[in-house]
Amino acid sequence: MGTKDEEEWFLKFYEGTFLIKGWRSRMKELLQPFSPTKKEEMRGLLDNLGEKIGREWARDNRVRRVDTPLLQKWGQDLTSAKRNGPDVLAEAIRNLDTEVDDLLA
User: How many CA atoms lie within 13 A of 101 on its CB side?
Assistant: First the structure.
């Protein structure tokens, strides 16, 4: 990965802290209402997306292209999409994945 600090921040992103939920917890919330088949399909998409976002967010503030307000916006977008069903959520995840790829290019 990168530095020890980046590794620690990446773990915080994934696991969360006492005050903030991590990516794993967010994934669980997003997938909770859906069938096992839909959950499995979206879990792979979310795992891939979380890896990209988390690694960039964990970088030094001076060079990272994903900051906390952007994480919060994306979280709200995914939560809103979830309310409209699994197909809308899956599309939102794919769109966000493309957005992240473009941001990191």
Answer: 8
The runs of H, that is alpha helices, within the chain are: 4-15, 23-31, 36-57, 68-82, 86-104
- Closest CA relative to residue 91, chosen from 99, 81, 76: 81
SS3 16: strand
How far, CA to CA in Å, does 83 sit from each of 31, 37, 51?
11, 18, 24
pLDDT tens by residue, the chain, 105 residues = 578 999 999 999 999 999 889 999 999 999 999 999 999 989 999 999 999 999 999 999 999 999 999 999 999 999 999 999 999 999 999 999 999 999 999
What's 35's DSSP letter? -
